[in-house]
């Protein structure tokens, strides 16, 4: 049989019954592609053997963490081997002298945070899926999160990687050194490469001291533009909050309907603002932010307990999954524009929604210009579906006109691959193909993603 | 099948959030052991793309505690519990039931047979159990190997007199009816005693309806819908016309079954008459602690027992019945209360789960034990006898017999006594 070698190698960690293949066939895009088999390696050596087998037999291999991605990066679109990294989930070292953690890719982001907390440290990238997404997946997609406004995204916190290449060879790129300019910066090439160039088997992560204190406030606006202006005003006043999130009217209604979290359903927009630092610093920042918000006509609520804070954040993190209540189809985009252009972009989406008679729900990371534009449609209504895709096309165009990008954090995968060239240009796409061929001449690693 | 049930799996958006809360997934870390995986299989089954014919399907679908932690956490309210039960129903159709579950169903369907089994087990217990009865746990280990129980398992012995034999209706024009549940009827009668004592002290009349059947939960949870339906129908017929304000169901799992699962069971059979009857009866079903809290002035009568206690939230009390603050409020008046970490995390019992997957069940319990011990409490209080059985055994295994277990009703009863 075709996969006998893998079966002998991995024993009960090789799965090819339909019941198993079905459960490694999807991710949060809700699209389904059946892999031919599933393998669950426990060591880098096993990953190496799996890849060298796949390379010799020209079988596609799709590495996957927790399958919580929104762009289809973990889907076996051409069948082949689903390479689940979930059993490689050890935190190998927390180096307190250098503030570096060495982890295997299957470690769940939140589990790492829990392990770091007693040491007074944290790993800043915090995608909304942080409680159930893996570090490996975060790195492969270069995930961001609410804290990106202050701390940047995953690429800013990875110092080095151990990866397995398509032919099975194991290489280390980057190092524990803060400064290291020897050779090409391959680690940065691999971060965000969506499993198309290599399989990550180990990561060296930079850690940051936990802030002494943090506080969250919620500002409610009757006018989206004033909310967007507030974002610009806060930044203009040289305050960098640790999170600066916004939720539009439709998103407020949806989440309130589901969670009954006491959100103001009459509001046009909410900003959720978190500041971090010394007790003195956060008091000063909060006061300044409060003044800016009030000046722009907002009602302000400051969380005074952990419970209040958690309920604000839970509501924010629950928006995406609850959208299903509006319609069963959604084009879940994560466009990003320079933050000074947010109000303009939101206005454009509202015009586009009107033009195509579709509902667009916006929320996201106002502080870094990253807007989750969700175009909702009924999957059974083909006309509506067509309109939704037309609207998406126009959203991308407007976003690019404003100097933005079609993806801030979800990645390209299969859902946005048709639009990639529009942003980066033909010559760049050619370069991508050449790079891909250099690393993976047989195109076995996550083929048919990013137009590769 | 009723359209209302479809929402339970069609609402899943495969976000993966259930992975962060599931106690079984926390131990096994693979997709087949979490709600998202179960939902995907059931949806494919309904669409006709898949069937549970693989031997593995039993392992994957029975390794679920039905603790409903994922249901509570799901932003879309996907009903994973009913999904697992529906999948199990199909598994039963294809693979049949485990022998002991077949025997169990036969016994639970017949109250007389149940009583007879209990009586004979009681007589047999002299030779079944070791003499070294663990008095603090009121349980003993088995002397011989029984087909379904591990030999070292601590089992609470059957009470000499069942709840139904001990008590009959009391008071003029009583407004409540008591449904003890099998575990309290045959084993933990002392919990029933506590409730009866409390009612007498408060001078509240009650009905003991001796013709009541098992609620059907263990059968239904196994995927045996047909026998569960017979029991559900019997109980609904018995209590539906009773002129009462409340049907006080002492076991949270029975209460949860009768209050929430009966209607879904009849939805499955498209039996609209009984769906409506089940929904109507559901309004009257209440947990005893919540009943006392809402309808009596018991909080004024509680005296400090001097005990230091912590509280474990039973899944079918906190998550399905949403009873969370009431027991804590009463406990705080009866004892010194310290909240444990993750008080609402499942104890790992899960009914037959603890028989089928004992090691996994105890592993889940052991996380709970650490949290209990960290509170330095003398007594663990909880509102479910299955949790008491599980956690007292886990405490014993961990070498902490000094930590006692009490049902909330027992603590309340002691606290009233002190006054």
**Most residues in contact: chain pair:** A-B, 37 and 28 residues
Assign the CATH superfamily of the largest domain in chain A: FAD-linked oxidases, C-terminal domain
Instruction: Tell me the Rg of chain A in angstroms.
Output: 22 Å
Number of domains of chain A: 3
**Overall average pLDDT of chain A:** 95
Structural class of chain A: alpha+beta
Mean pLDDT across all amino acids of chain B: 91
Q: Please tally the β strands of chain B and state the result.
A: 10
Cα(first) to Cα(last) distance of chain A is: 29 Å
Low-pLDDT stretches of chain A are none
Quantity of strands of chain A, as a count:
18
- For the record, the count of structural domains of chain B works out to 3
Could you name the CATH class of the largest domain in chain A?
Answer: Alpha Beta
CATH topology of the largest domain in chain A: Vanillyl-alcohol Oxidase, Chain A, domain 3
Q: In CATH terms, what is the architecture of the largest domain in chain A?
A: 3-Layer(aba) Sandwich
Distance between the termini of chain B: 55 Å
Largest sheet of chain B: 4 strands, parallel
Radius of gyration of chain B: 21 Å
Organism (chain A): Desulfurella amilsii
Protein name (chain A): Glycolate dehydrogenase subunit GlcD
Pfam families (chain A): FAD-oxidase_C, FAD_binding_4
InterPro entries (chain A): FAD-bd_oxidored_4_C, FAD-bd_PCMH, FAD-bd_PCMH-like_sf, FAD-bd_PCMH_sub2, FAD-linked_Oxase-like_C, FAD-linked_OxidoTrans_Type4, Oxid_FAD_bind_N, Vanillyl_alc_oxidase_C-sub2
